[in-house]
Amino acid sequence: MLEQRYRWKNKQLRMHVSVLDGKASPTILLKNALYLNQTFRKWMRANIWIYEDRIVYVGDQMPSLLNNCEIIDCTNEILVPGYIEPHAHPFQLYNPHTLAAYASQFGTTTLINDNMALALNFKKREAFSLLRDLRTIPTTMFWWCRFDSQTEILNEEEKFSHSNVKSWLEHDAVLQGGELTGWPKLLDGDDMMLHWIQEAKRLRKKIEGHFPGASEKTLAKMMLLGADCDHEAMTGEEVYHRLMQGYMVSLRHSSIRPDLPTLLDDLKRLGIDTYDRFIFNTDGSSSSFYEQGMTDHMIRMAIEKGIPTIDAYNMATINIARYYNIDYLIGMIATGRVANINFLSSMENPTPVSVLAKGKWVKRDGLKVEDAYPAIDWIEYGLKPMELGWELSMDDLQFSMPFGIKMENSVITKPYSISIDVSGDHLSNDHDECFFTLIDRKGKWRINTLLKGFATNLSALSSSFSNTGDIILIGKNKHDMMFAFNRMRELGGGIVLVENGEIVCELPLPLGGIMSDLFIEDLMVQEKRLFEELAKRGYSFSDPIYSLLFFSSTHLPYIRITQQGMYDVMKKTVLFPSIMR
Q: Omega of the bond prior to 373 within 30 degrees of 0, cis?
């Protein structure tokens, strides 16, 4: 079934019809359910018949055959469609499988995922095998197709070749191109990117923008070039401008941009009271941000802010499905749809008591169903502990750059002039400047500078988690930096903090050095410990995981450290090239 082009084979479709004819029994019957009917925009009662992974009937009738059918009286329960996360970055230390399993407990049963980590770190054949095999899990998984690396890598033309991008765009699990972090190149005349956008449109797929701070004129230009949606509105006025230009607006609430309460207040202030062009997203937050929920948390905030209850649920379900043209499959409780259903205790509490995903119980009466998400053998896809066939030496930690990188917040970095002596092996704790190295995971090149604002008394941090999978070293003490690097290598990848020759904390990332294999609940414990230890050492921003990820990301201003060297984002030039080892 999983190799086929269609969601259900002809034989299965005939079986679905035979259930209605009374020749076969449903596998689950939900009796007398009060459910959200989005066609009528009402809460209505009906009997819902499910056969395996599909809703085969919603209405007043009862099946005539009930052999081996699980019958549930839903008189005292409220049913809504499974929630959809349209903007998942499923590689933020967690992995797509563990994110899906965790999200399902909060009612999010469909993820539309960024493919960046797959495009950069997987061979295409292995990536597509993973997409295929993830169809076996209860969560419904869709994907994006990136058009650029959002940094300056040495082999961009290979990773994002026309043939690779075209293969991703044509994949039936891919719903959109983007997000368009490289849109300035598009406006500057990049016809290859414009061609890919045209191809996406030809395939009836969407284009996701990434337009923080964009002017009304820029938004109009990007709409003309093919953008459909944007998730970067940070104020009500920015929401308004996007709506005026015809965008679907994705309202964000994430670990680095927890904007939803302000945005909802602004919508009221501006008199915006029509919600069909809004959807919710959590923009790939760090795992600890999800402790109190995911999409359900956003629905709750919307209801508490006075958004009509049905609209709040629609922004997490049918609005998204209609936008992506997949409402024939998901996003509503109706005949023919995949059986993704959340069972609520009340309309005002969107965190489900029980969850059906593809007709399988993944949560039942408040408890997680064990083994609903069987383990994945990541080695099959080339993801094994990182192996570094080279040694780090003190010669690699030589710092002579005339300027460094200053952090303005978790992700924005500016250049600054270095005025302290960096010739020794230690830096003082009297200031917030640290040694900072990005080094090729294959050991071919490095770039060294100073990082201001990250910490005041951090002896050493080593991380294999970065935008490109290269190694980040930050610290005041070169010897401890060497120690942290060597421990990170022993782990097969991860994030390691060292002080006075001793390990303070470590977060192993055995899946290629970029992902954990732990359940998200367990990953949260490690992540919180890391955050606490960094805070003790002077990290004062909201999300160090995003800081590590975005040091190389050229879709953000102003100065970045990339494979090609120190890069000026505004001038689009390499200021100092990386050094070959």
A: no
The residue among 349, 385, 478 whose CA lies nearest residue 426 is 478
pLDDT in tens, 465-508: 999 999 999 999 999 999 999 999 999 999 999 999 999 999 99
Which residue in the block uniquely carries the two structure tokens 């990082």? 451
Contact (CB, 8 A) for 497 and 506: yes
pLDDT tens by residue, 226-277: 999 999 999 999 999 999 999 999 999 999 999 999 999 999 999 999 999 9
Chain segment 96-120, per-residue pLDDT in tens: 999 999 999 999 999 999 999 999 9
To the nearest 10 degrees (0 to 180), the angle between helices 236-244 and 260-269 is: 70
Which tokens sit at 147? 């058009």
Beta strands 78-81; 341-344: pairing state: antiparallel
Taking the C-alpha atoms of residue 439 and residue 579, their distance in angstroms, rounded to an integer, is 9
Please state, in angstroms and as integers, the Cα–Cα distance from residue 218 to each residue in 200, 236, 245, following that order: 21, 18, 10
CA distance 323 to 205: 10
Is residue 145 within 8 Å of residue 168, measured between CB atoms?
yes
Note the pTM of the prediction, 2 decimals: 0.96
In tens, the pLDDT along 566-579 reads 999 989 999 999 99
What residues contact residue 472 under an 8 Å CB cut-off, 6+ apart?
436, 437, 438, 461, 462, 463, 465, 466, 548, 551
Around Cβ 44, how many Cβ atoms within 10 Å? 14
63-69 contact pairs (CB < 8 A, 24+): 63/19, 63/22, 63/25, 63/26, 63/29, 64/22, 65/19, 65/22, 65/23, 65/24, 65/25, 66/25, 66/26, 66/29, 67/25, 68/25, 68/27, 69/25, 69/26, 69/27, 69/28, 69/29
Structure token pair of residue 368:
């997680």
Tell me if residue 529 falls in helix, strand or coil: helix
Contact assessment for residue 47 and residue 33, using Cβ atoms and an 8 Å cutoff: yes
What are the E-state strand segments in 9-51? 28-37, 42-51
